Amino acid sequence: MYFSDICGYKREKKLWTSSCSDFAPVQILSGVPGAPILSLALSLIAWRHCKSQMVDDGCRTCSGCLKTSKYFHPDVFFTIPSGSVKNKSLDSSQLLKYWRKFLEKKNYQEIDSWASHLGNNIKNLQIGIKQIEELIAYSRSYPIEGEFKTFLIWQPELLNPSASNKLLKTLEEPPSGTKFLLVSNDPEKILSTVSSRALHLHFGSLSKDIVIEELKKKHPDKSINDLTYASELAAGQIDLANNILENPQEYSKFANWLRIIYLNDWTRLVEYLEEWGKKPLTEQKRWLSYGSTIMRGTLRSFATGRAEAKLLSRNAQFCYKLSKTLSINQQELIVEYLERSYEKINRNAKPGLTLLDASLHISRVLKN
Fold it and tell me: Which of 173, 168, 174 is nearest to 191 (CA)?
């Protein structure tokens, strides 16, 4: 993975490469949902271990770049949430095999995708003390091919308490020639004593124009209206925008869900929730995010008295009609319940029960 493989973030990349000749020994990278923070961290690692010493990216041809691109560099150490596969715990070498395959398949990596890759539930993933002991032992040895070693800790918020305390001692006084990158989706959950030892870098959403340009490369057959529609709904998340274009029928089911609730058709609702509960967690969260965006489009339609141009075709008309049916207070409550459901699922609540709870609340909202 290289900086040139990641669209956008030009200012951040330039700032990073111009000031990182001796970058902070401990950094925490975080970003909005969908931001490619792990890809950015891997690109930084490739650049720092490139033997050609290029100004703004890895050369892609030296031995350092070839090894980092295959995630086999001897001076790069990965610490990642571990679980079990087929009820068997994974040792470090087995976990790394899964990790390399995961990185080769995904450009925009998420923790729920990693859990699915392992065939695990997110609740069962953690970084344990044994993994941190291995990291500490490795940090005490000298670099093999360069002047320093890089330690990438993905999802440090999943460190168990014993592992966090063990790691803290190393981060307080990093061994000479070591760099630590902590890549987090939820930095507020990182133990405060660990977080206070690091330089924090946060990455925001991509602009609509950048998302559209990236979508054009993968979907040259799509019209500009379709690309604009997907980019607006995805709110800067390229992975979500691709999913909207590739599976439009899935997202139209949000309207069906609201209609079922509106009609008080509980038999169909149970069937719908059973089907929805079988979907991967990543898709469930995307669906809820999409629903919130649709409802905000309804609020805009209510305010402007017309269908929003960005919410094209069926969705624009659906929002417009819904804005004529619901009061602004009802629309705001529906958005609130959808966002609350997203947060609950993000914190490992049971998805099926969470959406059922939201359905019941929204049913009451629609009756009032």
Answer: 168
Evaluate whether 101 touches 53 at the Cβ level (below 8 Å): no
Residue type, 114: W
Tell me the residue range of the domain where 18 lies.
3-203
Closest listed residue to residue 295, CA positions, set 265, 339, 344, 261: 339
In this predicted model, what pLDDT tens digit does every residue of 341-366 receive, in sequence order? 988 887 778 888 999 999 999 999 88
Q: How confident is the model at residue 307 (pLDDT cuts 50, 70, 90)?
A: very low
Residue 27 has phi, psi (to 5 degrees) of: -130, 145
What does residue 55 show for φ and ψ, rounded to 5 degrees? -70, -45
Domain membership flag for residue 168 = yes
Of the candidates 181, 217, 134, 242, the residue with the CA atom closest to the CA atom of residue 39: 181
The backbone torsions φ and ψ at residue 84, rounded to the nearest 5 degrees and listed phi first, read: -125, 155
CATH number at residue 273: 1.20.272.10
- Considering the domain architecture, whether residues 43 and 108 belong to the same structural domain is answered as yes
DSSP 303-333: HHSS--TTS-HHHHHHHHHHHHHS-HHHHHH
- pTM recorded for the entire structure: 0.78
How many domains are contained in the chain?
A: 2
**Cβ atoms of residues 236 and 207 within 8 Å:** yes
